[in-house]
Write a structure and sequence with these properties.
Elements (H helix, E strand, L loop, with lengths): L6 H4 L20 E2 L17 E4 L2 E4 L20 E6 L19 H13 L4 E5 L11 H14 L2 E4 L3 H4 L3 H8 L8 E2 L7 H4 L7 E3 L9 E7 L1 H6 L10 H14 L4 E7 L2 H10 L5 E4 L9 E5 L2 E4 L7 E9 L7 E9 L15 H15 L13 H5 L8 H4 L4 H8 L6 H8 L10 H4 L27 H4 L3 H5 L4 H6 L11 H12 L16 H8 E2 L4
Length: about 550
């Protein structure tokens, strides 16, 4: 997926909470040329969604693309279907290093077309945190995300911490004010909303009437925990008790039949809100966990859903009129994984407007030269200890380390940059995107590291120094034992526990072979990866 921050450029430590490390695999070696190319994400599977009345769970359909059981098994045609998403964190699409990755707005569009072919009326809403947390492309990603959600026909979006950090006023002035076709941000409890964000943030929004289908009303709440967290930004939020009664009244006045609350808060906060305001039949909330549960939770007659982070899934709520004023709708829930089955067929790009917007986005990244903003020239860990160390390129290593160089030359790492230039499609121009380049070259973001194909052609691809660090001091004095030790961080230390050694290696590779880009890289596959990069020291 598109990266949501620059951590892989700046922080040599392993990301917290990543997958469990491999246990008990014996590794014998002296030097390792493991490197950092994104490869492939594991193929996912559709999870069987459940509906839970507090703690009681009821099985629903178990969707799988094409080969498995059909989506929405045993569902009659709903009076309206809600397509719900959230916490995209700037992920516009899978990074493209593997076709088995999941998610992306182009696939979301194609999934939406499958609902249209069923003859379903669909209304879409997003809980917010569309923007990524940080990075040079944060603003442009938000800009194009809003355009894409407009193409997908979204009615309303919530506003989260990531939008606040854009900063919010500037970002909305560039998007919402300039394009009335984009979804309306709704924050019902924002103080001075009309004064500070005129024509940019609404208290609520109502879907357009579509035949005899129910009209959907959206309100948005920033929950108490998040309100406290972002208070330093200058934004203040009223308690939901002070604003939601008026919002409910206003939505009813606009003929909304089914009320949806976009809740920027935890499940527990959302549950409490559902108890206080049962008029909202659906609450779309945020969650700390990136992977969604395949369950919807019911509190009274209110359904609470969360489709996870990074746009890998969407949640679909089917609403059926009951004719009962006390419970006007029966609701069913389906978590849908946006798997490769929803990829646009070859030659059909013109049928999916998201592809054109993605290409426009990539062109803007190139034209604005955003890759330069990634070049922070921070110190590589080896440069912290040896400030004069500089990158020299793998060809220099070949002078002495011929057998190791051959191992590298025969490995895909030695052609990593070519994948961005030749193989990257939908969109092209990935070689100008720092979020892609970082895992396909050597030393990007570090002092004297890769700066561009013309400036530093010797650092194209993922070379020896991607693991060993800048080698100029070693080249100048190959007998210096301190430098040799610093350049071999993956060499077994005397008496070192094998598990600790394996973890160090795994963590280094995981900088690029992470859960977003290569979930084939795990405890079982690691030995095979290692064998392909293993080499000895020569001479």
């Amino acid at each position: 997926m598109e990266k949501d921050d620059q951590n892989r450029l700046l922080d040599p430590s392993p990301a917290a909470g990543r997958r469990t490390r491999r246990q008990g695999v014996t590794i014998k070696f002296t030097v390792l040329a493991l490197t950092l190319v994104s490869a492939a994400a594991a193929a996912g599977f559709f999870m069987a969604p459940l509906l839970r009345q507090d703690e009681d769970k009821v099985n629903e359909a178990a969707p799988e693309p094409q080969s498995g059981p059909p989506l929405f098994r045993n569902w009659p045609k709903p009076d309206v279907a809600l397509m719900l998403s959230g916490e995209q964190h700037g992920y516009l699409q899978p990074c493209g290093c593997s076709p088995v990755q999941i998610g992306g707005l182009a696939r979301r569009f194609n999934f939406l077309q499958t609902l249209d072919k069923r003859g379903w009326t669909v209304v879409a809403g997003d809980v917010g945190d569309i923007a990524q947390g940080s990075g040079p492309e944060t603003r442009i990603k938000f800009e194009y995300s809003m355009k894409m959600l407009g193409q997908l026909g979204y009615t309303a979006i919530g506003v989260g911490k990531n939008e606040v950090n854009l900063p919010l006023l500037e970002a909305l002035a560039e998007t919402v004010l300039n394009n009335k076709d984009e979804p309306r941000p709704v924050v019902t409890n924002l103080v001075n909303r009309q004064k500070d964000f005129p024509e940019m943030i609404e208290a609520w929004a109502v879907s357009k009437a579509k035949g005899n289908a129910p009209v959907i009303g959206f309100a948005g709440i920033v929950g108490p925990a998040l309100a406290r967290e972002i208070k330093s930004s200058g934004l203040n939020f009223l308690p939901e008790e002070q604003v939601l009664p008026q919002a409910i009244q206003g939505l009813r006045a606009e003929k909304a039949d089914l009320l949806v609350l976009l809740y920027q808060g935890s499940l527990e906060e959302a549950k409490e809100c559902a108890r206080k305001f049962p008029e909202f039949q659906v609450i779309l909330h945020t969650a700390a966990e990136p992977e969604p549960s395949a369950e919807a939770i019911k509190v009274g007659n209110t359904m609470l859903v969360n489709p996870g982070h990074k746009g890998r899934y969407v949640g679909v709520v089917g609403a059926y009129r009951t004719g009962n004023a006390q419970q006007p709708f029966d609701l069913r829930y389906q978590l849908v994984e946006l798997a490769p089955a929803y990829e646009t067929p070859e030659g059909k790009d013109n049928d999916n407007p998201i592809h054109a917007l993605m290409q426009e986005y990539a062109q803007q990244v190139k034209d604005r030269n955003l890759m330069r903003q990634f070049l922070l020239d921070s110190a590589h860990p080896l440069q912290v200890e040896f400030p004069k160390a500089e990158y020299v390129g793998s060809q220099v290593c070949n002078r002495c380390h011929k057998s190791a160089f051959k191992v590298w030359k025969d490995h895909p790492h030695s052609k990593a940059f070519d994948k961005l230039v030749v193989k990257a499609k939908r969109p092209t121009l990935r070689q100008f995107d720092g979020e892609c380049v970082v895992c396909h070259v050597t030393g990007f973001g570090y002092r004297t590291g890769f700066r561009g194909p013309e400036e530093t052609p010797k650092l194209l691809h993922v070379g020896c120094e991607a693991c060993h660090g800048p080698a100029s001091l070693h080249v100048a004095d190959d007998g210096d034992k301190k430098i040799r030790a610093a350049m071999n961080p993956f060499k077994a230390r005397p008496g070192e526990d094998k598990k600790k050694l394996e973890d160090r290696i795994f963590s280094a590779c995981e900088k690029c072979h992470d859960t977003d880009n290569d979930t084939h890289f795990n405890s079982k596959s690691f030995p095979d990866y290692f064998k392909k990069t293993y080499h000895t020291v020569d001479p």
